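User: Hi! Is it possible to get a structure for several chains at once, not just one? Here's what I have:
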Amino acid sequence: MEIFTQQLINGLVLGSIYALVALGYTMVYGILGLINFAHGDITMIGALVALTVVQALAAAGVPAPLVLVLAGGCAILVCSLLGLSIERVAYRPLRRAPRLAPLITAIGVSILLQYSAALIWGKQYIALPKLIEPAAINIGGAQMTTLQLAIFVLACAIMAVLLWFIKASRMGRAMRATEQNPDVAGLMGVNTNAVIAFTFVLGSAIGAVAGLMVVLYYGIGHYFMGFMLGLKAFTAAVLGGIGNVGGAVMGGLLLGIIESMASGYIGDLTGGVLGSNYRDIFAFLVLVLVLVIKPSGLMGQAGGDRA
Amino acid sequence: MNPGCRPWLRWALWAAIALLLLILPFATEALLGRSWVRILAVALLFVMLALGLNIVVGFAGLLDLGYIAFFAVGAYSYALLASPQFGIHWPVLVLLPLGAALAALFGILIGAPTLRLRGDYLAIVTLGFGEIIRVLLNNLNRPVNITNGPQGITLIDPVQIGGLSLAKTQEFAGLTFSAAHNYYYLFLLFALLTIVVSLRLQHSRIGRAWEAIRDDELAAAAMGIHTRNLKLLAFAMGATFGGVAGGLFAAFQGFVSPESFHLIDSIMVLCMVVLGGMGNVAGVVLGAVLLTALPEALRYIGPLQQRLLGEVLIDPADLRMLLFGLALVLMMLLRPQGLWPVRRKSQTAETADVS
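Assistant: Yes, the chains can be modeled jointly so their relative placement is included. Here is the combined structure:
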């Protein structure tokens, strides 16, 4: 039971990070029908920028909370600009092109970001300097650190605000209108180009926060870290029903829990034959199963296939 | 090929192309060195792979992001049955069809439950499948050692034709045929076969049915096309090509490891198809050759930096990938339909969604 609670906690924390990244995928997909392959790498850039800021400021003796805020701020700024310019340069000219063309540019941008990062930060793992010693809270025999709690609460807060924003604000309404039909939205006076650019900025900014969280959680950063993260997050988005913001949140949390549970129990269940090195498979196995049973994802509308 | 031109001219042209292909490895060796002959052989392997994926993506319009998995199935089935791993040494003539059949089986296994998903869902499931295969190859060395894990399988038997090993240098008519030369000719044979099969398929009843499914699945179904079976066929057919190429790859390298079958490799093959011109066999061949040669050519950046700047400022391997990424983006911005797109019969089809 303790293992169960522990894995549940780990899964929820991991899942909330997946969910934040998944939001970026799902928002862009909802509006453009594009798998933004570069999104995982935008998150990676955010993580490495935050890491650099933390390294620089922690050495200068700046108090830890301020360091975190500044690191997050810098990461958000860089990623927003990055998202904005990528959309403008690489995706906007291709909006009416054959469907696979923007996918290939997205892959190209992803490679560009990865190897730019390799040039700037090098290819080694970069360690995060010790900022705060997180205290542990005891929940039903399992341990949850204050860091985990903070990540989870912050992620939930961001998701709640985002859901409210899309539902209630003027911009959110414009986003939903553009998602349903860009041409008609344009006729109704929505500046669809601005809305799409805004969506990229929003997704990238949230990705930057997720990047900071990953760095804090694992304590290391790497130029290739965006790849698996992006893959998992995209899986989460599809799991929840791609294009559906609520679905991305649910898919992310679910994926995190499944992964933690699987890697926690698989050794015992199979008598040590299969180890946690199979962890990465579960995400995909679950995805295949869900899609076979309910092709539109858990929360996708029936017939909502835009492809 | 302009059908209006005189027949003898066409024959002369074909003869010239055939001659060029035959002397190409020797010309390359003289001009660029033996390592480029090897690259030529690899390019031909990628022609096979790209044409296989072209059936799935270009003809039938199904986006497959895990295509390299079929290559892996072919390569590992060859490697396991023709190496000291299990002490089995079956002949090539058995192993290549076996690899093809296994790959086709995997294609059907993965295709059957997922082909009713469309577009990007299919993309992500195939991507997941590709990753699953790679993780399995990496981890199936325990509790029973099947794939030898990340170390891969070594000492794979080369292709033997009538007691003649292709891995050994042969002297013939005053010419030196190195292993790379031998495999070049073998792969050329297979690549040509693949091209012919692709072309014949494209204009066959099946090919036209695929095209109909790609352009409008609903309309195709209404016209009496059995969409599920035909999509499965496209998947299995593409997988077969991948399986054969995989077997040849294993024999050529003498070594396989899970490292050769990353997602980036699937993406590379997809880029060949899209960059060359989806659906057009000639375009795909061009894309495959270009994208194999381009990264190799970019290897010369290191020495070039040395000569121009006096030192190596940027790690050439990184710069190579940077330029590759940039090339992909620029290509798509300047020519989103690919270098050599397929000629469509109607204007409206050009803007239609393909996937």
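Residues 14-224 of chain A form one domain. Strands of chain A lie at 126-127, 136-139, 142-145, 220-221.

User: Great, thank you!
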